Each structure stands twice: as structure tokens, then as C-alpha cells.
Amino acid sequence: MVDDRIPTRPEDVDDVARGCRRFVNQRALLAAGVAVVPVPGLDWLADVSVLMKVIPEINRRFGLSQEQIEQLAPDRRIVVYKALTAAGSLLAGRLVTRALLVRALRIVGVRLTTQQIAKFVPIAGQALSAALTFGALRFVCEQHIRQCVAVRRSIDA
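-> C-alpha cells emitted (157 positions)
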């Protein structure tokens, strides 16, 4: 069972961040496995699919999903939205759409372009593609986790 408590103490926020990183590593490994398949475009679909599940789950674990924020008292909601804006959060507190995820993936666009090219080199290229997928997903999710930590700490300060 997943713990639905919203972290408020700094040590709770750190625990949630660690749990999110483990979760991200598991999902990134799954996407890397798909990237080994030498079908162009399949890995992009897997990346977006993984992110469509991972990003909302990270938001939920930090108490920053759109639904959780909407349930707050109006004055508390304003504090949360101000913290989200101050952190420059692209994905926290928002409905996560494919368009937003593609925007986030553009951050690592060079890696993913290299990944597509690498697929055409037998074996070594597929291994490189898997490594680039894993790294790109971890990078995007790590940035998101850091933003969520910053937002949570500024809210609870």
C-alpha cells in the first residue's frame, strides 16, 4: 500500500524524494528495456508513456497533484501556487499532458536524437540507446523531484 500522507517535515520530504528516485529508477529501467528493441519511435512512445505515469505519481507523493491542491483551503492553495510559480515548476500542480511531457523531453533532446541514430548500429547502438533512455528519463524526473522538494520546503517553511 502506498502512503498517502503529505510530507511536511524536512525528513519526510527527504524520505519521499528517496522513494521517488527508487520509483524513477525502476520505471527508467523498464523504458530502457523497450529502447533495446530496434524499432524507431517505439522508445519515444515508451518514454512518454512512462513519464505520463511517473510525473503524476511524484506530484501525488509530494502532495502537489492538481487534485490535492484543489482540496486545500483557499488561503493555503494560494501559498502552494505561489511556491510552484517561484520554483518555476513545469509539471508540479498541473494536469500532465503529452504536450507538457514533450516539452520536458526537449530538455534532453540531443540525447534522444542520438538515441534514435544509435538504434541503427547493431547491438552496441541498441545498448547505447537503452543507456541514453535511462539517463534522459532519470534526468527529467530528477529535475522534477528537485522542484517538488523546493516547493514542499517553501510551503512548509
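The helical segments are 10-35, 42-61, 66-70, 74-87, 98-105, 109-118, 124-156.
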